[in-house]
Design brief:
It is a single chain. With about 425 residues, the chain is an alpha/beta fold. Helix content is about 40%, strand content about 15%. It has three domains: about 30 residues, no CATH class; about 130 residues, Alpha-Beta Complex (Aspartate Aminotransferase, domain 1), CATH 3.90.1150.10; about 230 residues, Aspartate Aminotransferase, domain 2, CATH 3.40.640.10. The chain is globular.
C-alpha cells in the first residue's frame, strides 16, 4: 500500500493489504485500517459484529447499525446445526450445574480447574470416539494449537491440506515445525510430498468436513498413503461430529477408516451448540499431551456447566437422532434450491454450503444487499479464503423450514442478479 492520505482511496483497498502492511511505526497500520473500516461503514459494506438479541435459531433478531434498530433476519450463519443449544432439557441441566459449581472453572486444568463433570465428559468422549482416552480444551481452536505444538518439534514436518483450518497452521507454526502443503484433497500430490520427506517425524493433518468448502476429505486414499509411508495422521472432525457416520463420530467413521486416525480432534461449538474442543487418541498419547499442550496447561479450563450441557446432549443423541435426520433432509433441499437458482455451491457434501462470489469488491456489494434484504450469513474473504475466491458461507440446520430455505435462495439469487460478474 503506497503512503498517502488514508481516506482518499480507502474503499479501493482489501483486508489483505492491511495484514501485510509494514509502516515505520508498529502501530501505523491502525490509522490506515481505521479509514478503511469507516469507509466500509459509509458504503454499508461492513456487516460484521451485529449483536444478536436472541438465541442462535433459524430466525434471529439482530441490531442493524444502519437503521439503528433491532430487526429480524433469516439466520444461515450459526453452527447450531442440530438446535441443541436451545433444548429445554439441555438448558435445565446447565442451570442446575451452574447453581452447584458457579460460573466458571476458575483455574487451569492441572491445578483446580479439573472437575468431576469434566472427567465424566472426557470418559464419555473417549467411549463415543472409540478411543482409549480423550482430553477437553476450552475451545476447538486451542485443541488443534495445543496438540500440534505439544507434539511437534523444530525439524519435524506438518503436512497440511492447503485448506486446513488456521488453528492447524498455527499449532505447527508455534511448534517451529516445517510446514508442507498439498493441493486440496489430492492424494496424488500428497504422495509426492510424502515421498520427498527425509524424516518419519511427520504428521498429515486433514479435516473431515472442510470448513469453507463443505466437501469431505478423501480419507481412504489418504490413510492408505500415511500407512504406506509410516506417517501419523490427525483429523479435525469439527463440522462432522454428530452429523457423519452411523454413530455420529464423523467422516472417519463414515468412510470406515477410524482405526487409521492417530489423533481425532473435535469441537463442541458446532453440532453441540456449546463451546470447547477435544482430542481423542491412545491413553499414553493423551496423557503426554496433558503436560505438553500449552493451550491446555496455560488456559482456564472448560466451565463445569458447559461440560454438563455437552454430556446431556450426548445422552439425548444416544436415544434420538431425529434432529440429524431433519438436518440431512434440509441439506439435500438446500443444495437443490441453490443449484436451481443458478448459484455456484462448489463440491459441498454437507451442511456447510459455500456460495462462490469471486472478487472481494463484488462480495462487498452482494453482502450489503443480502443484509438489507434480511439474510444473516457468513461473508468470507481473506484471510479465511483467497481474496479472489470470496464467498458467502451458509450453515444449514435441522431447524430451518422449507419456506426459510426458499426465501434464502430467493434473496441470494436477487443479490447476485443485481451485481453480475
Amino acid at each position: 500500500m503506497e503512503t498517502q492520505q488514508p481516506d482518499k482511496k480507502a474503499k479501493q483497498h482489501t483486508h489483505q493489504e492491511f495484514i501485510e502492511f509494514q509502516g515505520d511505526d508498529l502501530f501505523d497500520v491502525k490509522n490506515y485500517f481505521w479509514e478503511f473500516f469507516q469507509d466500509g461503514i459509509r458504503q454499508k459494506h461492513y456487516i460484521y459484529l451485529n449483536p444478536l438479541t436472541t438465541a442462535p435459531v433459524s430466525q434471529v433478531q439482530a441490531y442493524d447499525r444502519y437503521t439503528k434498530s433491532v430487526r429480524p433476519y433469516l439466520n444461515f450463519s450459526s453452527y447450531n446445526y442440530l438446535g441443541y443449544s436451545v433444548y429445554p432439557e439441555v438448558i435445565r441441566e446447565v442451570q442446575n450445574t451452574l447453581a452447584k459449581y458457579g460460573t466458571g472453572a476458575a483455574s487451569a486444568p492441572l491445578f483446580s480447574g479439573y472437575y468431576d463433570v469434566t472427567e465424566r465428559l472426557e470418559k464419555k468422549i473417549a467411549a463415543f470416539k472409540n478411543k482409549e482416552a480423550a482430553m477437553v480444551f476450552s475451545t476447538g481452536y486451542s485443541a488443534n494449537v495445543g496438540v500440534l505444538s505439544g507434539l511437534l518439534k523444530p525439524g519435524d514436518v506438518a503436512v497440511l491440506d492447503i485448506l486446513a483450518h488456521a488453528s492447524i497452521y498455527d499449532g505447527a507454526k508455534l511448534a517451529g515445525a516445517e510446514i508442507k502443503v498439498f493441493s486440496h484433497n489430492s492424494p496424488r500430490h500428497l504422495e509426492r510430498v510424502l515421498k520427498s520427506l527425509n524424516t518419519r517425524r511427520a504428521i498429515v493433518c486433514v479435516e473431515g468436513v472442510y470448513s469453507m468448502d463443505g466437501d469431505l476429505a478423501r480419507l481412504p486414499e489418504i490413510v492408505a498413503l500415511c500407512r504406506k509411508y509410516g506417517i501419523k495422521i490427525l483429523i479435525d472432525e469439527a463440522h462432522a461430529t454428530l452429523i457423519f457416520g452411523e454413530h455420529g463420530r464423523g467422516v472417519a467413521e463414515h468412510c470406515g477408516v477410524e482405526d487409521g486416525m492417530d489423533i481425532s480432534i473435535g469441537t463442541f461449538s458446532k453440532s453441540f451448540g456449546a463451546i470447547g474442543g477435544f482430542a481423542a487418541g491412545d491413553e499414553k498419547l493423551i496423557n503426554y499431551l496433558r503436560f505438553s499442550a500449552r493451550s491446555y496447561i496455560f488456559s482456564c479450563a472448560m466451565a463445569p456447566h458447559t461440560a454438563a450441557g455437552i454430556l446431556k446432549i450426548l445422552e439425548i443423541y444416544d436415544r434420538d437422532k431425529s434432529q440429524r435426520e431433519k438436518l440431512w433432509n434440509n441439506i439435500r433441499y438446500m443444495h437443490k434450491a441453490l443449484t436451481n437458482a443458478g448459484l455456484d455451491i462448489g463440491n459441498t457434501q454437507s451442511q456447510v454450503v459455500p456460495v462462490f462470489v469471486g472478487e472481494e469488491m463484488r462480495l462487498r456489494e452482494i453482502g450489503r444487499r443480502i443484509y438489507e434484504k434480511g439474510l444473516y450469513t457468513g461473508i468470507v474473504t481473506y484471510p479465511a479464503v483467497s481474496s479472489k475466491r470470496t464467498r458467502l458461507r451458509l450453515s444449514v440446520s435441522s431447524c430451518h423450514t422449507q419456506e426459510q430455505m426458499d426465501a434464502c435462495a430467493a434473496i441470494l439469487k436477487s443479490a447476485f442478479d443485481e451485481i453480475p460478474q
